[in-house]
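Hello,

Our lab assistant flagged a job as stuck in the queue for most of the afternoon. It eventually completed. Since we weren't sure the result was trustworthy after the delay, we are filing this so someone can double-check. Below is the sequence as submitted and the structure that was eventually returned. Let us know if re-running is recommended.
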Amino acid sequence: MKIGCVIMASGMARRFGSNKLLHDFHGEPIMVRILRSVKAAGIDHPIVVTRHPEVVAICEAEGVPSLLHDLPKRSDTVRLGMEYLLNQCPELDGIMFAASDQPCLRWESVAALCAALESEPGCIHRLSFQGTVGNPVLFPRSVFEELCHLPEGKGGGAVVKAHPELVRTVEASDAQELVDVDTPEILQSLL
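-- returned structure --
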């Protein structure tokens, strides 16, 4: 199967107080972790969508394409990522949306989501841990049109809510994989 991945890196990190994606996590910027997990899982078509030139520089160093924009809404980030991926590879079977601030996400979990899509190609697959759902979320081709036309300000969660019958979960190895680094305190708790 051909799977793309939109890595969402457009947040303003207001609760963190500075660009959290640049902060150190075991010797490298937080942003590097998701790039390496996606590559190690074998996803051939990643794109980082960001409004931060510093993130673009990290992507260039890691050999991952990026789109720099200045649009305000989450739906803009989704749409830009979808447009890029579908222009690069129109025959994609699935598109994963991954948060850029989950430094404990393991490549094995990303690969397990891809394997789940192969087993159930018409379903929406999302990472979870003991009943708590989170990111990444992998969407099948059948909902691409909806993702391209989200209500203003909404993300892929709107499509998940519209199709609960399609949602399947893939169990993460531990709860930390789902943690977003939204504050300096959360970052310290993961180190």
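-- support follow-up --
The delay was a queue issue, not a problem with the job. The result is valid. The radius of gyration is 15 Å. Residues 99 and 181 are 10 Å apart (CA to CA).
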